[in-house]
């Protein structure tokens, strides 16, 4: 999916919501555990309930890889279900891959060739040759670089300054623009960073930002939009737990749909 197609979806649906499919077997409703594929059955119900209100889905690979072959098959089925039934949705594999050379080429082939997702999260801290293999030969695919995350450990590296006062996350964003562009590269920026979106926009004025942390993690949608929104939106705001685990009863999908609709209505007003 190219940038204009994504923007068209955002304004057609009046939403820039991404639903995170962090599907945890310990949290899904009890009545699903007896099914042949509880992870996929949960995802399918969530997708059917929330698809009218979002423009993207983000399965987190850790929650699938934890169950070995069965988990990976559930991930594959989820991606295929989206492609078959909701082809307008932007599908992000949240895998945070980061290696060099042939290893990165194989990761790129896996996610863009085999799974055919639209985007992949990538850790940039091994430099250019850990990122460019994902950009080479995959038209319409996106790399989403980790830039400024919300966890307390971000202070260990991302926020450290060099002798000229440039912070590491700013250096990463600035340098990465030599490898990709606003048509194939986005950045992960945690929603709880608030006013720091102003600093992000100084070094990445036109890039799309994938923003986790709204909802259960306490990030403010209004602040994200105040400091991070640009012409054509430029944001994909992710909510995972606040939507998919809003209920663990028989009504889990209906409640998830209602939570997604509430966020979509807030986003429509902000757009």
Number of strand segments:
8
Spell out the helices and strands N to C.
HEHEHHEHEEHEHEHEHH
Strand content: 15-25%
Kindly report the average pLDDT value: 93
**Helix segment count?**
10
Which parts are unreliable, with pLDDT below 50 for 5 consecutive residues or more? Answer: none
Largest sheet geometry: 8 strands, parallel, barrel
Net shape = globular
Strand order of the largest sheet: 1-2-3-4-5-6-7-8
Short descriptors:
271 residues, alpha/beta, 40% helix, 15% strand, globular
Give the topology, please.
Layout: H1 3-13, E1 17-21, H2 38-50, E2 56-59, H3 62-65, H4 68-85, E3 90-97, H5 101-114, E4 119-122, E5 142-148, H6 168-176, E6 185-189, H7 196-203, E7 209-211, H8 221-228, E8 235-239, H9 241-244, H10 252-270
Parallel strand pairs: 1-2, 1-8, 2-3, 3-4, 4-5, 5-6, 6-7, 7-8
Helix pairs in contact: 2-4, 2-10
Give a nutshell description of this structure.
The protein has helices at residues 3-13, 38-50, 62-65, 68-85, 101-114, 168-176, 196-203, 221-228, 241-244, 252-270, and strands at 17-21, 56-59, 90-97, 119-122, 142-148, 185-189, 209-211, 235-239. By secondary structure, the protein is an alpha/beta fold.
Question: Could you describe the 3D structure shown?
Answer:
This protein is an alpha/beta fold and 271 residues long. 40% of the residues lie in helices and 15% in strands. It has 10 helices and 8 strands. It has an 8-stranded parallel β-barrel, surrounded by 6 helices. Helix 2 (38-50) links the parallel strand 1 and strand 2 (56-59). Helix 2 runs parallel beside helix 4 (68-85).
């Amino acid at each position: 999916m190219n940038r204009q197609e994504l923007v068209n979806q955002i304004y057609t649906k009046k939403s820039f919501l991404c639903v995170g499919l962090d599907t945890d077997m310990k949290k899904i409703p009890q009545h699903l555990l007896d099914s042949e594929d509880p992870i996929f059955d949960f995802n399918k119900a969530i997708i059917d309930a929330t698809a009218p209100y979002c423009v993207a889905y983000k399965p987190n690979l850790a929650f699938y890889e934890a169950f070995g072959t069965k988990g990976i098959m559930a991930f594959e089925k989820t991606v295929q279900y989206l492609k078959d039934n909701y082809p307008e949705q932007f599908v992000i594999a949240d895998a945070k891959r980061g290696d060099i050379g042939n290893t990165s080429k194989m990761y790129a082939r896996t996610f863009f060739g085999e799974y055919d997702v639209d985007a992949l999260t990538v850790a940039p801290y091994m430099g250019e040759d850990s990122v460019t293999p994902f950009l080479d030969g995959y038209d319409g695919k996106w790399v989403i670089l980790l830039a400024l995350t919300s966890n307390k450990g971000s202070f260990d590296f991302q926020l450290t300054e060099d002798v000229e006062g440039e912070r590491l996350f700013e250096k990463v964003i600035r340098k990465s623009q030599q490898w990709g562009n606003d048509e194939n590269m986005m950045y992960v920026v945690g929603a709880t960073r608030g006013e720091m979106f102003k600093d992000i926009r100084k070094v990445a004025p036109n890039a799309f930002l994938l923003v986790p942390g709204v909802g259960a993690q306490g990030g403010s949608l209004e602040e994200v939009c105040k400091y991070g929104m640009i012409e054509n939106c430029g944001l994909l705001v992710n909510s995972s737990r606040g939507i998919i685990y809003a209920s663990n009863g028989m009504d889990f999908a209906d409640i998830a749909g209602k939570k997604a609709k509430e966020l979509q209505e807030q986003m429509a007003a902000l757009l």
